[in-house]
């Protein structure tokens, strides 16, 4: 039987828990477990040495008895927040390979709890299904039939389940646990005499390390909720994420959600791209601040159908990151970015650097840069080996050249491949798990180098729509394509669920409007996160193939004026106003953003299509009962209300598939 080194945390002693003053206390409270050469890791037998990191965070460094393996664990606690971050790093410090590391677990903790049951709040991830991002909560009881839970992200990307797990011991005590890893992961929970939690890579993990290798392993962020309601705890965790785990520019300022409009990269520079840009600016009069060029701008010199969204050839030219000179004859898109900059817009461009196809010359010139499955390899699935420094240098230079030559301000990275079978197929028997570790470490190094070269560059994280929304990636990027299922008809409830269920953890996301019918306000508001992406051609080929009417233009102006208005409010506190656990059509869905410092916010409530109720009891958060508020509906009607009246109202929805969007500001 494996030896587990577990910590008992007293649920009713929050002060003791949060007042850890020594690194040894932290190591005891957040234990790491693994086997080395078949023997369980025993911290005191690994010559522990306490240090501080370069940024003054406490560390413990352990050296294996044979002197070949070093484990460095850095602990970070955040002033003003009951949060602890645990970051383990393995390093081969010998001139010879290490022994075998098995079953490395980044966190294995226990907690005393006397409750009847422990609730695990979990949210499905992105699988391009209309049931994505819905709650599937579980109650663990002290019965063998229901005392355990296993979760995993098993597609080589981190968000098959959303990698944020909530634990509720009772109404006022619990945890939020965020997994900092952009590959596979697993989490196991058990409730018997104690509540037990552990998390690691999915595995199998059975590897030795070569001289000079250093592996950043999955890390964990743990938020402790003590004497706070769930709503208060989630709001505090979100404030922590915004302050400490959200991307910033070179001046340390948080990036504001963008207000973009999008064109296909396959649109010709002069014939269509500039035409669409100038038309949108002149006709729509919407304060867009980003021109978004999506996939299809690269590849061999050939004619491309002038379709609205990416065109039919975008997929097959991955890996050749040079503009198609038939559609972009200058060999770059500088003419487009200059035009965008002239209209006070930033310029975004799409890439998918980790995938290549047989059409890309680099796959023939440097096959050693890529991994493929060894059995039945597919011509469209070459996985760039980001763990190979030469391959990473090549792709970094390719992307950097495009950033400079095309004047890119926002770098958008997609990832349309399941890497797990490729990783596993390329692992040696004594290196199981290494391909994944090296790739994910290389991904972070790639982005770090881009950020070093271009400190003001903003990153957008797509990954087939929301499949990599872990805390590490989202500390570096916003995500404005949260699920590829938004391209399906009838996805109103999906996109409502994404905003409702993810915004407490991932503050800055947005929706795309692929399937929004023209003039359908309910559908548009359903897509909203912190912003929405406007692709004119999605609306029945608008601009490319038809002129919009005046009524349409006025509707678009209303929609994106609202999107612009709510952007800054996403820096405030988010509250879910409905808590139904599963994806349903016969319910209300609602949420609130409240900026307490400014005394303003908004709420949005949807009566879904099959909801039989006409009345919804509104209960807002953060409203001062004795203050006066100016209240404005989406339609522009204004009135003044006392805070106590605003915070508790019975809203009437006479029709199904309807909404109420209301802004408020303290007077």
Largest sheet: 10 strands, antiparallel
Strand residue content: 25-35%
Q: Label the structural class.
A: alpha+beta
Q: State the helical fraction.
A: 10-25%
From the alpha carbons, calculate the radius of gyration and give it in angstroms: 26 Å
H/I helix tally: 15
User: Number of folding domains?
Assistant: 3
CATH topology of the largest domain: TIM Barrel
Topology:
Blueprint: E1 8-9, H1 14-18, H2 23-29, E2 33-36, E3 39-40, E4 49-52, E5 58-63, E6 69-77, E7 83-92, E8 101-112, E9 117-121, E10 138-141, E11 148-153, E12 164-170, E13 173-180, E14 185-191, E15 194-200, E16 206-207, E17 214-216, E18 219-226, H3 230-244, E19 260-263, H4 269-284, E20 290-293, H5 334-342, E21 346-351, E22 355-356, H6 362-365, E23 370-371, E24 382-384, H7 389-406, E25 410-413, H8 420-425, E26 431-432, H9 434-453, E27 458-461, H10 463-466, H11 471-474, H12 492-502, E28 510-512, H13 521-527, E29 531-533, H14 550-567, E30 573-576, E31 588-595, E32 600-607, E33 615-619, E34 628-633, E35 638-642, H15 643-647, E36 648-652, E37 658-666
Parallel strand pairs: 1-8, 19-20, 20-21, 21-25, 25-27, 28-29
Antiparallel strand pairs: 2-3, 2-8, 4-5, 5-6, 6-7, 7-17, 7-18, 8-15, 8-16, 9-10, 9-12, 11-14, 12-13, 13-18, 14-15, 16-26, 22-24, 23-24, 30-31, 31-32, 32-37, 33-36, 34-35, 34-37
């Amino acid at each position: 039987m494996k030896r587990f080194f577990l910590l008992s945390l007293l649920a009713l002693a929050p002060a003791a828990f949060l007042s850890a003053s020594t690194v040894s206390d932290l190591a005891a409270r957040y234990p790491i477990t693994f086997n080395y050469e078949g023997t369980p890791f025993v911290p005191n037998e690994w010559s522990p040495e306490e240090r501080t990191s370069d940024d003054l965070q406490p560390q413990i460094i352990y050296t294996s008895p044979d002197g070949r393996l070093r484990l460095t664990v850095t602990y970070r606690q955040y002033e003003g927040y009951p949060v602890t971050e645990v970051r383990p790093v393995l390093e081969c410090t010998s001139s010879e390979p290490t022994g075998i590391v098995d079953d490395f677990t980044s966190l294995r903790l226990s907690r005393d709890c006397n409750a009847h049951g422990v609730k695990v709040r979990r949210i499905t991830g992105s699988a391009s299904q209309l049931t994505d991002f819905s709650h599937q909560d579980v109650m663990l009881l002290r019965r063998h039939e229901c005392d355990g839970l296993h979760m995993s992200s098993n597609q080589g990307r981190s968000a098959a389940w959303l990698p944020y797990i909530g634990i509720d011991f009772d109404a006022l005590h619990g945890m939020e646990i965020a997994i900092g890893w952009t590959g596979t992961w697993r989490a196991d929970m058990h409730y018997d005499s104690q509540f037990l939690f552990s998390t690691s890579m999915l595995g199998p993990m059975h590897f030795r390390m070569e001289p000079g290798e250093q592996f950043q392993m999955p890390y964990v962020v743990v938020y402790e909720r003590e004497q706070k309601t769930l709503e208060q705890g989630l709001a505090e965790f979100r404030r922590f994420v915004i302050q400490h785990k959200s991307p910033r520019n070179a001046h340390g300022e948080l990036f504001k959600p963008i207000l973009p409009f999008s064109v296909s990269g396959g649109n010709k520079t002069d014939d269509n791209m500039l035409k669409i840009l100038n038309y949108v600016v002149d006709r729509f009069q919407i304060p867009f601040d980003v021109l978004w060029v999506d996939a299809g701008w690269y590849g061999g010199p050939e004619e491309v159908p002038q379709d609205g969204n990416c065109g039919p050839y975008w997929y097959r030219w991955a890996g050749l990151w040079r503009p198609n000179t038939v559609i972009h004859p200058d060999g770059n898109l500088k003419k487009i970015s200059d035009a965008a900059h002239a209209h006070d817009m930033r310029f975004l461009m799409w890439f998918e650097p980790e995938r290549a196809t047989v059409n890309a010359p680099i796959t023939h010139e440097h096959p050693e840069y890529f991994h493929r499955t060894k059995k039945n390899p597919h011509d469209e699935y070459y996985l760039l080996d980001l763990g190979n420094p030469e391959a990473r240098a090549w792709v970094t230079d390719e992307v950097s050249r495009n950033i400079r030559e095309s004047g890119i301000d926002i770098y958008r990275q997609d990832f349309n491949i399941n890497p797990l079978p490729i990783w596993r197929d390329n692992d040696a028997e004594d290196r199981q798990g290494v391909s994944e570790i090296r790739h994910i470490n290389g991904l972070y190094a790639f982005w770090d180098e881009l950020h070093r070269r271009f400190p003001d560059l903003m990153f957008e994280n797509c990954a087939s729509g929301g499949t990599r929304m872990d805390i590490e990636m989202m500390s570096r990027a916003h995500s404005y394509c949260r699920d590829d299922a938004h391209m399906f008809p009838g996805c109103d409830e999906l996109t409502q669920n994404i905003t409702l269920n993810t915004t407490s953890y991932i503050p800055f996301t947005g929706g795309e409007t692929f399937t929004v019918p023209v003039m359908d306000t309910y559908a548009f508001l359903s897509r909203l996160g912190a912003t929405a992406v406007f692709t004119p051609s999605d609306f029945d080929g608008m601009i490319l193939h038809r002129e919009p009417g005046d009524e349409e233009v006025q509707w678009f102006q209303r929609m994106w004026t609202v999107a612009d208005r709510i952007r800054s409010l996403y820096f405030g506190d988010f509250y879910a106003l409905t808590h139904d656990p599963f994806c349903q059509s016969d319910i209300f869905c609602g949420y609130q953003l409240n900026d307490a410092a400014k005394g303003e916010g908004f709420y949005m409530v949807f009566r879904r299509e099959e909801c039989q109720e006409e009345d919804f009891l509104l209960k807002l958060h953060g409203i001062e009962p004795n203050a006066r508020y100016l209240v404005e509906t989406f339609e522009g009607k204004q009135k003044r209300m006392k805070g106590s009246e605003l915070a508790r109202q019975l809203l009437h929805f006479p029709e199904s598939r309807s909404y109420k969007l209301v802004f408020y500001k303290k007077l």
